[in-house]
Design a protein that fits this description.
The complex is a heterodimer of chains A (370) and B (383).
Chain A lengths: L3 H21 L1 H10 L6 H9 L17 H14 L6 H15 L4 H7 L5 E4 L2 E2 L5 E2 L4 E3 L2 E10 L6 E8 L2 E8 L5 E7 L5 E11 L1 E5 L1 H39 L1 E2 L2 E2 L4 H29 L4 H30 L10 H13 L4 H18 L1
Parallel strand pairs in A: 1-6
Antiparallel strand pairs in A: 2-3, 4-5, 5-9, 6-7, 7-10, 8-9, 11-12
Helix pairs in contact in A: 1-4, 4-7, 4-8, 5-6, 5-7, 7-8, 7-9, 7-10, 8-9, 9-10, 9-11
Chain B lengths: L8 H15 L13 H14 L17 H13 L8 H13 L2 H13 L4 E4 L15 E5 L2 E12 L6 E7 L11 E7 L5 E6 L8 E12 L3 E2 L5 H7 L1 H7 L4 H17 L5 H29 L9 H22 L9 E3 L2 E3 L1 H8 L9 H12 L5
Helix pairs in contact in B: 1-3, 4-5, 8-9, 8-10, 9-10, 10-11, 10-12
Classes of the chains: A alpha+beta (370), B alpha+beta (383).
Cofactor (chain B): FAD
Pfam families (chain B): Acyl-CoA_dh_1, Acyl-CoA_dh_M, Acyl-CoA_dh_N
InterPro entries (chain B): Acyl-CoA_Oxase/DH_mid-dom, Acyl-CoA_Oxase/DH_mid-dom_sf, AcylCo_DH-like_C, AcylCo_DH/oxidase_C, AcylCoA_DH/ox_N, AcylCoA_DH/ox_N_sf, AcylCoA_DH/oxidase_NM_dom_sf, Mycobact_Acyl-CoA_DH
Chain lengths: 370, 383
């Protein structure tokens, strides 16, 4: 049980984040950005930065608000509710997660918190078969060679944070998006956004950190981002459900609102229960991650959150289309935007089947260790 | 008198756990069936001496006077240790009703007898034509001098064959404009010529449910609790706490523990498909517990629970069923075998768990009824 003071802080944060997104245009703004080519809005990033959104989980001594992942989750839920395309979770979880752990003195940290800089994190790699593979991207003599994949926010970023292999082990380096020998290919996503595929050939980059600490910080940052992505899906599911509930209350067939039919009512209840379980589980996870220092337990908690959130979002967004009937299949109705965004967020950082596997294996290891 | 509520939650939990672990008879842990009173009498005597028979009752009536937070802890510890509820219809159902709506004379007479189990109660609500539609009940009680004369039939009366008394909802005004009106709450002795009990054999071969027939059975008019024709509202007023209790994670948690040890012994975890389904079930239980805590916190803050608490029951009972179905799957060719299956040093009665899970989605308001309630009261969906 969280303290009532903390609960109140989170409530206020939720209110101000919701107001901010609503004032900016809610899901309508997201649709416009998609129609305009799918990139996020740099002005919005600045506004979010000024409002302190990016720094919620950064400790106060590093220039953040020090409110923990629980607060990051509040923000992520609100982002999900309006399906905002800005890489808020990637920035809080990955970008700031790496910088604050590995090089808290770097000026990029402050700029990123303030929304004055954009920074996309490139850490995954694609193997020859197309699936995720071990890292082979090299860093030597100040230059990067190889490739990175599934980079969120690659389109509009000024810089990339790249995790690469060097002679002394893993390194974290900073490369400018306009650097020589860097080719960025965009892969279009269902929601209109894109993921970047980077190819480096002797691309100059500056080393920020090296050694085992990089691997440790990366695992922690990925766990944070995974749990926050779960929170984003929770907000998305909740809003998709509300839209659907409004629709079935007003849409009439056989001279009655379709929401008066028991089969529709029971399906709506099932979606509601899904949303509530997911919200309770993900919020509990974030709260526990804030109080947990053991990295493997934090990772297992994050997997639990993502597994639940993806399961719920899949059920809610797909049933939402069905409950809308034919109009649910049109681009004109917003509910489809939620389905598309859920597809992208579910695939990013692992879907439910993946995370159940990770969760189960971690549980087995813990059991064996005891 | 100990003021339990003044203790910290941790202290209180330790106290309860200590007592249960030291005093609860080993042979009664995780009892797979509902016991007759004789089977658990020795445990009941210990509880009675300790003064712990009625945790929720106010201390002035011989209860522990626990607030909601402490009460949840008490039940959690009972369930954790596999403590049988005992014959608790008196304590859980009729006692609180008498405390809230009964006369002083009724309290003085009935409450001590409930605590001592001198009277053992069963609940006469459901009828053949009044299950989910309980207000449709037809068993009549007519005033005849100083008595009510009762005619009709109750069904699914749990352990009626081992009860001395029945508390029941009866129709006292057949001409009331709405069927919820004209229902009264009366107490009656089972030990009389006009009452006949027949046991019902369930799918699992147990006989815990009964039919009870009333043929000019009598009970004194002073055994009416509360006002005449106001029984429906009273009975409903009692359900608030039960609704979170019925949605508690414990049944599913215990079943999951059983499933895990059984599946491990059977080597079922070698199968990646089984591993995933187990992980799904385990996460379903864990995530339900998160939602349960949210409601429990509400109670602890002294708030009353809304109709949305019904979602706990829906989720956990359906999850419980899936877990017991996985047990059957893990049993492979033994999936139809009656009695305990031995795996290493663990013994699991797969079919007993499976059967135990079936009625959970039916009793306490079927899950379909719960969905009706949620769709109207929480989602505001139209008629």
């Amino acid at each position: 049980m969280q303290s009532s003071e903390q609960e109140e802080d989170l409530r206020l944060l939720r209110e101000s984040a919701r107001t901010l997104f609503d004032r900016a245009g809610g899901s309508g703004r997201s649709r416009k950005l998609r129609d305009a080519g799918g990139e996020f809005d740099p002005d919005m990033v600045r506004e979010l930065g000024e409002a302190g959104v990016f720094g919620v989980a950064v400790p106060e001594e590093q220039g953040g608000l020090g409110m923990g992942l629980a607060a990051g989750g509040v923000i992520a839920e609100e982002v999900g509710r309006v399906i905002a395309p800005e890489p808020v979770v990637a920035t809080i979880g990955l970008g700031l997660g790496l910088l604050r752990r590995l090089c808290p003195e770097h000026p990029k940290l402050e700029q990123l918190i303030g929304g004055e800089a954009s920074l996309a994190v490139a850490w995954q790699e694609r193997g020859p078969g197309g699936a995720s593979a071990d890292a082979t991207c090299r860093y030597a003599d100040g230059k990067l060679t190889g490739g990175k994949a599934w980079v969120v926010g690659a389109g509009g970023t000024q810089d990339f944070l790249v995790v690469a292999e060097a002679d002394g082990g893993p390194v974290l380096v900073l490369a400018e998006a306009s650097a020589d020998g860097l080719v960025t290919t965009r892969r279009a996503q269902a929601d209109g956004s894109s993921l970047g595929e980077l190819s480096f050939s002797g691309t100059p980059a500056a080393e920020l950190a090296c050694g085992a600490a990089v691997q440790g910080a990366l695992s922690e940052a990925v766990a944070d981002a995974t749990a926050l992505a779960a929170a984003e899906l929770v907000g998305l599911s909740q809003r998709a459900f509300e839209i659907t509930l409004d629709y079935i209350k007003t849409r009439e067939q056989f001279n009655k609102p379709i929401g008066s039919f028991q089969v529709i009512q029971h399906r709506a209840v099932d979606l509601n229960v899904m949303c509530e379980v997911a919200q309770a589980a993900v919020r509990e996870v974030l709260m526990r991650m804030d109080g947990e220092t053991d990295a493997s337990i934090r990772a297992r908690l994050a997997s639990r959150a993502k597994a639940r959130a993806v399961t719920a979002a899949r059920k809610v967004t797909r049933d939402a289309i069905q409950l809308h009937g034919a109009v649910g299949y049109t681009d004109e109705f917003d509910i489809g935007l939620y389905l598309n965004r859920a597809l992208v967020l579910s695939a990013w950082l692992g879907d439910d089947a993946y995370h159940r596997r990770i969760w189960f294996d971690a549980r087995e290891e813990e059991g064996a260790a005891q | 008198m100990t003021d339990w509520n003044a203790m910290s939650d941790a202290e209180f939990r330790k106290e309860v756990r200590g007592f249960l672990e030291a005093e609860y008879p080993e042979e009664l842990r995780h009892l797979p069936h509902r016991p007759k009173f004789a089977e658990i009498e020795h445990w009941h005597r210990k509880l009675h001496t300790k003064g712990w028979v009625a945790p929720a009752w106010p201390a002035e009536y011989g209860g522990m006077g626990l607030n909601a937070a402490k009460l949840l802890i008490f039940y959690e510890e009972q369930q954790r240790w596999g403590v049988n509820r005992g014959r608790d219809m008196g304590v859980q159902m009729v006692g609180p009703l008498i405390i809230k709506f009964g006369t002083q004379k009724q309290k003085n007479y009935w409450l001590p007898r409930i605590l001592s189990c001198e009277d053992i109660w069963c609940q006469g609500y459901s009828e053949p034509g009044a299950g989910s539609d309980l207000a449709n009940l037809r068993t009549r009680a007519e005033i005849d001098g100083d008595d009510f004369v009762i005619n009709g039939q109750k069904i699914w009366t749990t352990m009626a064959h081992d009860a001395t008394h029945i508390f029941m909802l009866v129709r006292t005004d057949p001409d009331a404009p709405k069927k919820q009106q004209g229902i009264s709450f009366v107490l009656a002795s089972m030990d009389q010529p006009g009452v006949e009990v027949r046991t019902i054999t369930t799918l699992s071969g147990e006989t815990e449910f009964c039919e009870v027939f009333f043929d000019n059975a009598r009970t004194p008019r002073e055994n009416l609790v509360g006002e005449l024709n106001k029984g429906w509202t009273m009975a409903k007023a009692l359900l608030s706490f039960e609704r979170i209790f019925i949605g508690s994670p414990s049944l599913a948690q215990n079943a999951l523990g059983q499933l895990e040890s059984f599946a491990r012994g059977r080597g079922a975890f070698d199968d990646p498909v089984f591993r995933d389904r187990f992980a799904q079930a385990a996460l379903d239980v864990e995530d339900h517990a998160a939602l349960y805590s949210r409601f429990a916190d509400q109670l602890k803050r002294g708030e009353t629970l809304g109709a949305d608490v019904s979602m706990l029951k829906i989720w956990v009972t359906e999850c419980f069923q899936r877990i017991t179905e996985l047990m059957i799957e893990a049993a492979g060719p033994d999936g139809g075998t009656v009695g305990p299956l031995q795996v290493g040093n663990v013994s699991v009665d797969v079919l007993a768990s499976f059967y135990k899970a079936r009625p959970t989605t039916i009793y306490g308001g079927s899950n379909e009824i719960q969905r009706n309630i949620l769709s109207k009261a929480v989602l505001g969906l139209p008629d």
